[in-house]
Amino acid sequence: MNENGFAQFSVLTIMMLLIAFYGGTYLLTLLIRKKEEDTSGFMVAGHNVGFGMGAASMTATWIWAASFYAAATSGYTYGVSGPVHYGLWGALMILFIYPFGRRFRELAPNGHTLGELIHARHGSSSQLILAGSNILGSVISLMVNFTAAGALVSVLSPLSFQTGVIIAGVGVLSYTLTSGFRASVFTDFAQLVALMAIAVVIIPAVLFSIGGPSVMVDGLENLTSQQADFFSVDAIMNQGAPFFVAVLAYAIGNQTISQRLFAVREKHIKRTFVTATLGYGAIVIGLGMIGLMALTVGMEPVNGNMNNLIPQMVSEYLPPAFVALFFVLVIGALSSTADSDLSALSTIVMADIYGKNIARENPNPKVMLLVGRITMVVATAAGLIFASFSLDILVMLVFVGALWGAIVFPVIVSCYWDRVTNAAFTWSVVVAMALFCIARFELLEMTGATVLFFEVLASVGAAVVFGLMAFGFFGRTVGLIVGAISGAIMVVYATGFLRDYMVLTASLTAYGASTIVCTAMALFNKERFDFDLIKQRVGDYDNATDEDESTMIPEGARS
């Protein structure tokens, strides 16, 4: 044990664990290595990922380092409902994409990124907004995962934070670089098996080490009334609702999800994403219970840092062998997400930037593969550099989350409504981002008519969220009815109330503003778009031939 009460392993032990994990993962990738890799395999595994691999990859990708710490923090902060508010809404993020994902695959069966579909629909400016948000979000995700690795290594061994960061970065890059997305999917399956096996052992072990369920029940008496209430308003408004809004934006805006959507066989999309929803929710809610256990036994996080809760609980109540399992669990979780981020980044640069904007008339598959691998190296270096600084990750994530919230409605409606234009898409995102920043950072005094204006916009945003979900699962009529009813209820009851929760108000403002601007501009457009053109404009690059420019570029994108 070190001075803070954490289990302390020797340098040799930690290095052996890291070498065993990353070395074993690299050896696994050799089983699928091809002498001549093609772009389709590198980006989406040839659109041929099966149900089991797809569901495992989706689950492992979204159980990342932050899932451990944030879920535990939610349980510790908000009590009995905390783990549910984190795990359940995070799982919903996966479920939300599948009904719209089937439409995306219908429009672009040979696509690799959602940006390609938007490029075929609108042109470069809308596509680059989507690609830019994905690049920023994936780099931040890499930074978060490498930072978590460095912190874990520094806490559990004499090695420095920077050493842990470098080992994680090099380890992930080593097995992802050759086969890209295929390597990510293949290793995700093995990593998920390890995650589930270790979680099934560690979570009950901690529970019974603290004295069993009876000790937890007795400890509930020490909770505040809000922490003990499963329907706590405090937990819903400060954790559940903002996270619910954020993860819906993540479902549409993040390439790691849409990449798997284009990779899984089309007939398996529904059951793949439903299974991943259940798997993610079960594991992450279980991890959040460790935070609730810490709360009931009265544990105080070392140095006031909530990220120390799980290592503290594991170190204090479990023997060293279990701590080693926990170490592998976290390393596996962050690595499965980091390799997905590398694959997503390389695919965006290969398809959206090189394929559609630099070499749109004649993309060279070999050059594309080189571009993808160079992107992985550069992205890893950027993640390592940013992880070595003490940057305010939360502020950066807020901007990315807002951008994704601003693009949800324009992206979805562009795939169903033939009157949406490139200008409507672009300006709706720009206006939504500007209004989000004003609300989130209170650049104007939030009183009187000003705050009422933002509450009304947020009410529209809430109607959009509920309406889109209903539309995705039950069709346009039900979606419009649900949206109208929820919007009316929000305007009546949320005005005068939402101003006390500006984080939630700002996030909903991004949804509401983008919807209003996009819809208004689309209504002024009299031209109709032929959705059959998307299938012609989006294809596999390995079989690409010189095509007439009119089939590759939308009218609005021509100069």
Shape: globular
Give the oligomeric state: single chain
Q: What does the radius of gyration come to?
A: 23 Å
What ranges have pLDDT less than 50 throughout 5 or more consecutive residues? 545-559
- The number of helical elements comes to 24
Percent strand: under 5%
Summarize the amount of helix as a percent range: over 70%
Largest sheet: none
Average pLDDT confidence is: 86
Distance between the termini: 66 Å
Structural class per helix/strand content?
A: mainly alpha
The H/E string reads HHHHHHHHHHHHHHHHHHHHHHHH
How many beta-strand segments?
A: 0
Characterise this structure.
- This protein is mainly alpha-helical and 559 residues long.
- The chain contains 24 helices and no strands.
- Helix 5 packs parallel to helix 12 and helix 12 packs across helix 18.
Topology:
Elements: H1 11-30, H2 39-44, H3 51-62, H4 65-78, H5 82-107, H6 114-121, H7 124-156, H8 161-176, H9 181-209, H10 213-219, H11 225-228, H12 233-253, H13 255-263, H14 269-296, H15 309-317, H16 320-358, H17 365-387, H18 393-414, H19 422-440, H20 448-474, H21 476-494, H22 502-523, H23 532-537, H24 549-552
Helix pairs in contact: 1-8, 3-9, 3-13, 3-14, 3-16, 4-5, 4-14, 5-12, 5-13, 5-14, 6-7, 7-8, 7-16, 7-17, 7-18, 8-16, 8-17, 9-14, 9-16, 12-18, 12-22, 16-17, 18-19, 18-22, 19-22, 20-21, 20-22
